[in-house]
Amino acid sequence: MNRPVKRVLLTNDDGVEANGLKILERIASAIAEEIWVVAPERDQSGTAHSITLHEPIRVRQLEERRFAVGGTPSDAVIMACHHLMKDNLPELVMSGVNRGANIADAVAYSGTIGAATTALIMGIPAMALSQGFRSGDPVHWETAERYGPELVEALLSAPDRDHVCFNINFPALAPGQVTGTRVTGQGRGSIRGVNLVERTDTRGNPYFWFSFRHDYSDLDQPGTDVDALRQGAVAVSPLRLERDHDGLRQLLAQRLER
Questions:
Q1: pTM score over 0.85
Q2: How many CB atoms within 10 Å of residue 177?
Q3: Residue 29: how many CB atoms within 10 A of its CB?
Q4: Which of the residues 159, 189, 206, 221 has an alpha carbon 20 to 30 A from that of 89?
Q5: What stretches in the chain show pLDDT beneath 70?
Q6: Fold of 5-187+220-256
Q7: Which strands sit side by side in the sheet containing 165-170, from one edge to the other?
Q8: What are the residue boundaries of the structural domains of the chain, listed by start?
């Protein structure tokens, strides 16, 4: 059977053994003829676009076309495209399926999205997929698996797909409860602070754990990824690499340029 993509690269930020990566492989098998997995050796959540510059990167082959990389999600994409797959580059990079939604301002910290945008920098179309869940409830991986293949295939023919990363978030619902698909903007304002926990190791030296405090309760901006998930829909957000502000740039130019 001919599929729309010849060769696809899969990665994530939850680690090469993560359940979500197994779901991503099933999604990819519906649209790609050849699947490569190059993913971090361990959990790299929160690493955003970071690459490792001050220590060596090691790669371990697990099986045919499946590798574990001792680094960040972006390291894994670079390793794949500049070494493991350099003679036959992927036509598409898919990152995920992340355990937990990547929405609102958390997008800036997401290693899942960082891997996808790193692919975009190298000129390869990319998508990031995440499965929302509620704390204490089982993760509805079957929702991403049910809706992922059709949605990914539809986005393959989207206008300007070579210049955006599609950020896809599935709601924390069973497949039969999903209300549809919404094309959204990125929400903002969910990060309300940082938790810092200080502890002491066995030698008496202090160390610290960081974590974010999120609150989505008063985010009611219509048309955003937060709003779509709240309505039980799959959220699809096209994200650009460019972070400039055209309107403000033009205003400042009028005021400051001489």
A1: yes
A2: 11
A3: 13
A4: 159
A5: 1
A6: Stationary-phase Survival Protein Sure Homolog; Chain: A, (3.40.1210)
A7: 59-63, 66-69, 32-40, 5-11, 92-99, 126-131, 165-170, 233-239, 180-183
A8: 5-187+220-256
